[in-house]
Amino acid sequence: MKKRKALTLSVSALVACSLLLSACSGQDAAAPSGGGNAKGTEAAGTPGAGQNGVAGIKDGLIPATDKSKVPEAVKKRTDTFVVSLTEPGGIFNPYFYQNGYDGNVNSVLFAQLVDIDKNGKPIPGMAEKWELSDDQLTYTFKLRAGLAFSDGSPLTADDVAFTLTLLHDPAYDGQTDIAQAAVKGGKDYKEGKAAAVEGIQVVDPQTIKITTDKVNAQALYLLGGQVLSKAYYGKDYKPGKLDSIKQLHSKPLESGPYKLEKFVPGQEVRFVANPNFYKGKPAVEHFIYKTTEGDATQFFQTGETDYSGFTGNQDNMELLQSLGFANIDVYTASSYSYIKFNHSRPYFKDKRVRQAFIYGLDRPKIVDTIYQGYGQVADVPVSPISWAYTEEGVNPYPFDPEKAKKLLDEAGWKPGKDGIREKDGQRLSVRYFGSKGKVTDILIPIAKENYKAIGIDFQTELMDYNALLAKTKKGEHDLVSFSTTILIDPDDGVQSFNSKYKGSFTDTNGYNNPKVDELVAKAVGTLDIEKRKQAYKELYKELSDDPPYLLLNYRKILGASNSRITGLELNGFNSVNSSLPTVRIEP
């Protein structure tokens, strides 16, 4: 049941949202080359001598040097942990939100059956264990004893069954693609041919057995996610009618470490510790996502926030170190950033045009300017920390305006009188959507200059994040910048390239490559890691030749917390939310 869609975030909005969270691990840091945490003898966060500043930057904690410099505002808070966040939309249900920032809120409110460790591997959450049958088709989850929702009502296998059945409802319109798990009888239920999902079997209050029709590497995550209360969400629910559930989006019944206390749009989301959380009530009574517009750096400097994420670059590293009171976690993001082509546009149906857009953009200059050695140009849709990462046989698309011009010529786009290319009476003029922020401040002028030089009219429109989602969902864009969220499995980074995928604003708007469809299915259709590696290797080569996206970069994240905060364990697969049960505030 875990939300497996690779939700995206505006590239620019990611700077403001702090790049820290399960749905907000964005366009602001960089990954080492070659996979895994960068290693070396240098201190964490320090570029290695003679290296490009990516592979030479070591992940790790840089401790505060002068705790006495903690701001007075921080000293006054004894029971509240405050973190920056950008623009949640207020849909507090893990299976219905579209805004990635709502995902941050939901990960605080709802615990999962299966959690993820620092290496991206599944570990027990609310399920104390699970078993997989010899044919790899049946999952049996054993829930921990004494699980409860925030109101004290028991959380049982019946609630798990209710949640999984809801995801198969014919009217379900959320982002979770439960069909990928291929639960036996799920398709018949969704089509109204069955009264129940055959493959979902409640064995006893603590045990549920789920039978699938085919092997799928994503099944464990899809089936082992967050749980909705049957008594609460199912009270007025009738199959095919979801209004009663949607009316509860602002009044969730939680199972996570904190309960929702108050949501003030444009200002904050307030939480209070959940005494019924299965790991025990958190030590810090109150948690706040500060969503007020403003300078996140200033909020951290003055002590209005206890934690914020920063663009991984040398300027921010030096700033944070100069404060004295900041603990700085340097870690490699598991996400990647990109510009999305709208494949419904006639000019983007020709792969030569898409290739020209990639060759024609000086990605190294953009990445180096923003990240100052803490970023790396992306050439495959997976982070270097993933076991699936490989660039073997992949076109690196170096900045090559002459190659771009040649491709556009071959595609029939010839320079017009004003230098802008034309074909069949149409000018090659494209609209780029983005959010206001430091990243677009750098990207846009470089892109305008680069594309004008090869005969492309690059028009831009900046807007707030929610407007960006709405316009992208409607397909009004030609190009739009996003970053993926945390990618646990390599399939998360490629599933939207499948022609059958329909994911609102994450949709490619018509990309269709039968070989890509085949390889995406092949890579996720086995649990054998070596077979999956080979499939992804083939897939990345095909995607390089027929690019659905213009890939931008990988990055490192600088997670800064004031020195009174302890218990944070940050890495590319786990964020602040994962650490909430262990966070403490020192006197």
Automatic annotation (TrEMBL):
Sequence ranges assigned to domain Solute-binding protein family in this UniProt record = 121-502
Query: Which Pfam families does the record cross-reference, listed alphabetically?
Result: SBP_bac_5 (PF00496)
Please name the InterPro entries in this protein's record: Peptide/Ni-bd, SBP_5, SBP_5_dom
Keyword Plastid found: no
The signal sequence is 1-30
Name a GO molecular-function annotation.
peptide transmembrane transporter activity
Sorted UniProt keywords: Signal
Superkingdom? Bacteria
- What CDD domains does this protein map onto? PBP2_NikA_DppA_OppA_like
The protein's name in its UniProt record: Peptide/nickel transport system substrate-binding protein
Gene Ontology annotations for the cellular component aspect, listed alphabetically? ATP-binding cassette (ABC) transporter complex; periplasmic space
Q: Which residue ranges does the record annotate as region Disordered?
A: 31-52
The UniProt entry's GO biological process terms, in alphabetical order, are: peptide transport
